[in-house]
């Protein structure tokens, strides 16, 4: 009889709180946990030793990195990623990843070691009230002081993390509770069926679509399955609907298809933004239509009813800013399947509209003639042919990110992970989380020089875990996004944005990895080939001109425009 069957029949044994916590993770189907160890959860670590054949414990170097790895795991699997950190400073470091998970709608459970509960409110060593600290960052925060309640509260934590709009849950575990010995059964996941769209939802949407002349589908959110993505693709292709993806959701749609219109987010094609504003029906499936996707809430009048159908698993997200013509609360995958099955393709009057949006995407992705020996756009497009069809991309925050988003095309089986909250330091640990989750797949992480030195030390985890992601460090010697805004508002007054960097290729070589430096267009593909062939964790440092501050403007151009105002 397995542990789950024993739990269902009420058969149990005496266990410490630490063992119960580890067994609770097993009961919830957890396969990986990412952690920086701390004395506040020694008993949990001992419990994890007992289940090491079922839960892979990944030892990380920085708490923010551990949570980013867990968040990437959650994005890729649709199951809550698990991170375990210690109290006080550990929890504070981890809060960055909790914010990412909240804004990205990623299921996550963060377990935080806590002080002995008998010392509460004495301002004891590393004491923090986690309910107050994480309240605005997480979906739910709890603390376990009674070992007998571990199965109940841990099951609840996982239920909350994956329900409705998925997100992070924080569970504090007091120190002496982990030593208590109790006899209680484990609790597994609740057999909950996802929400189907209401019977009237699909007919009403199709009726609105029949009356449209310039429709656009906007895909976003998390929790998409391969079947769900295939269903929405089939529907959109059959009806010749132009499709855009939300901010950093490039993995949701095959960019090679003739109805793909591009991405809405930071650095979007201005032409696409203009076309969406002209649309007479926006079908937003999974997207919250947040600040970045809606271009600073300018796509539609805020607080007014717009030409929008919004589909989301959490009713509270529908109409939060923009009032839709129709709101549908449903699991995204069930909605996609129902929509596909209810509406076979038929001739539509907006073929020219779709071709216009597609032509705009192709024009935007055409590489300009940049000055200097490195045309990063052309180098990235040449790299596409070298990438396996199931490559996982991770991306940090910063101006550099707009280059792969604009000039590379993701295909059906490729994934793209990026922080919609703009957290620098995300890409390297996310790449590690992806590589550990899907061993054997090619993982390519894009990061700027600023972001790399925030969490680049996590590359050590790659060697310890036996994975080999490739990290592309785009180095222009500055905090590029802030420098761009600085030049727009205070042209020529450079303050606080310049960086002094190491030789990043030597950095990875110090760990025993593979390093490359790229300074010209035709050097990137050979460098990538050598990195792949090495079989080692690798860093490709791409040395960019600091003058080419964005893929659309140079510093001189931004400064000249600012001084004319």
UniProtKB/TrEMBL annotation:
Record flagged with keyword Cell wall biogenesis/degradation: no
GO terms for MF: acetolactate synthase activity; flavin adenine dinucleotide binding; magnesium ion binding; thiamine pyrophosphate binding
Keyword terms: Thiamine pyrophosphate
Ribosomal protein listed as a keyword: no
Origin superkingdom: Bacteria
CDD domains: TPP_enzymes, TPP_PYR_POX_like
Boundaries of every Thiamine pyrophosphate enzyme central domain copy: 204-337
Protein's GO biological process: isoleucine biosynthetic process; L-valine biosynthetic process
Residue ranges occupied by any Thiamine pyrophosphate enzyme TPP-binding domain in the UniProt entry: 396-542
Domain Thiamine pyrophosphate enzyme N-terminal TPP-binding, residue spans: 15-130
Transmembrane segments: none
GO cellular component terms, A-Z: acetolactate synthase complex
Similarity annotation: Belongs to the TPP enzyme family.
Protein name: Thiamine pyrophosphate-binding protein
